[in-house]
Batch of 2 targets.
Target 1
Amino acid sequence: MFLWLDGTNFGMGVLYGLVDDHETKETILTALAPLWDGAEVWLVVFGGALFAVFPDVYGGLFSGYYLLMFAILGALIIRGVSPEFLEQREDAGWRRLWSSTFILGSTLAPFFLGMFAANWLVGASGIISVPGIVVGLALVAISTAQGAGFLGMKTAAGLDETVTRYGLLSQVAYLVLAVVTVGYLYVAVEGMAAKVVHPVVLALVAITAILGIAYLWLLRDGQYRPAFLAAGIQLFGLVALVAVLLFPVIYPVTGLTVFEAAVSTLQLKMMTVVLAIFLPLVLLYFAVLYSAFAGPVQAGEGY
């Protein structure tokens, strides 16, 4: 959920750096202004759930990738504060500085999150790894594709040719990087070859390809809502792919399995009850939030 909702905002931040049109830039800032900070609730949920259910995994991941965690948080911080500072002055140099940090944070946040997911999957001992870089770039690409679809929904006149082109290119890049990732796992990561050819994995890859082709057609045709949903489903498919390839191991560095790492049955049942109560409330909050700010943004509204 975090990668889908805030990933959309990351993508619009990347597009902000790619376009030259001032009105498009202002539309991007206005579109994401009421939404970006709420999405980070899901990142907190991820950390809290991981700690509650798999405390040993939480400890291992957050200590093993300590610097990467701080890099993610740093990127999220500069992405968040930059639009706030950007609107404080009309000075060209000031706006150029905070525009640059906004673009940087929006690009680095998904890149570092992709590195984290890939390193977790392959059990990388260091921060920098080949799958980490490839998946990081893939997450930037799919976020940009999502951002283009969402921006089309928020722009009364639809996307201009430049943004549409970047949306299409980002989707093509994601499909290429996804194939490279799966190929690398099959060839270079021990124990992954059998998992990669599992029917569920092959089905996820096929669905990703079909949705990617559909996205290209939908975005070019101006059907922004289904294009946005197609890219979102691709992202959920990417997360599902990581989960399927991991299972039953959950911490490859030590070979710890899901069943060995989980807390007691009683604790799991208690957390399930809590989840059943609060998850619908969180989903309702987001339904209200996105309904309240639905529809295209108006020119001149500002951040």
Target 2
Amino acid sequence: MKSEKEKMLAGELYRPGDTEIQADQAAAKAWMVRYNAALDAPPAERRALLAERLASVGEGAVIRPPFHCDFGYNISVGKGVFLNFNCVILDICAVSIGDDTQIGPAVQIYAADHPRDAAERKSGVEFGRPVTIGRNCWIGGGAIILPGVTIGDDALVGAGSVVTRDVPAGATVVGNPAQVVSNGARSL
């Protein structure tokens, strides 16, 4: 029989009030207090703090505080990744950000999801769907990436866009919901 945490990590329905999950979230909150207080710390010190909590942190990756996440241990960032101020990642399952991707301020990445059936949702269960952002992408400020989305390499997401479905490699998407406006040209 799987624990609630094992169910959560597998993308199955789970109960978020489980004591193991609550303890993990409390540890993440304590880490965020430390990390977000390190805004003026040297980059090497902030990188060491990231390495304490995240699944993997590539060489030269930068996440500017304040930064918020559910757990941290489900987030992988590649080399040269940059997240600007005020990013939020709800990482109840895997969130992967590829090498050299740049993410603007106040971007929100959601792997957390909820049942569509009202009775099931009322029971308090949740589930997650992984989010994958490829290499060399640009995610404009204020964009929202929804659960289960994959953004292909070299894609561009316009500021304020709400990405509800996969984005092809090299495409530019804008709007709410985000729509492809270009399959390779970089003008908006």
